[in-house]
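Q: What would this chain look like folded?
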Amino acid sequence: MNRFSTSWRSGALGKDMRVNVYGSGGAPVLMIPTQNGMANQYEDFGIVRLLSDYIDGGRIQLFAVDTVDTESWSAADGDPCARALQQEAYYKYVTDEIIPFVHNTNASAWRPFVSGCSLGATHAAIFALRRPDLFQGCLALSGVYDAQDFWGGYMDETLYLNSPVHFMANLAKDHPYVQLYNERKLIFCTGTGAWEDEGIRTLGILRDEFAATGIKAWCDFWGPDVNHDWDWWEKQYRYFLPFLLGDR
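A: My prediction, written as structure tokens:
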């Protein structure tokens, strides 16, 4: 498998940030780690190996990035406004720095998909829903889509932009993004087993908001044996990836 790693000092974040690239071509897929995770996580937990047939076969090229969650989503004792601003800086890092890097590296005409598990799915939803012009869609597994769950009920204008259940609730039915969403592949999944209570609650809200606005996103709820853990995310990647790529 072709693999390389690079880093640069992010203008948005003011720190060095790493990107691992797996594969030589195909549809680009931006991989956001779980909470506090870094670029090696999907390799360390076996997801890269799990998808090696797609990678080596030239169907997908993975771009795995670092997070700054310890300064935003996980910094429970920090100033909530500063935490929200750091999350927004991460959003700008991805949209303004990572997306151009993906296009400069990947020779296909595809817009990147964005994917993640747990808090990585939350990030994936934020990126795909805020910028459907930049992303071809998302595969979000076991995310929590209400930022207030991490901010202790706090909300300001910046955090609102990073809380999908809030900003999607106010999307007008005639907003031009509605058509873009329906031209994309938006796939959300949660189990209904252990540690998935907030995922169930917040994906249920998103599902209803999508329906009310005419957005044809796929919100899938797996059974009560399906827990918030890697063994199930492995199964979900193998199940959903053909749908994401249009093979099914």
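The first strand starts at residue 3 and ends at 9.
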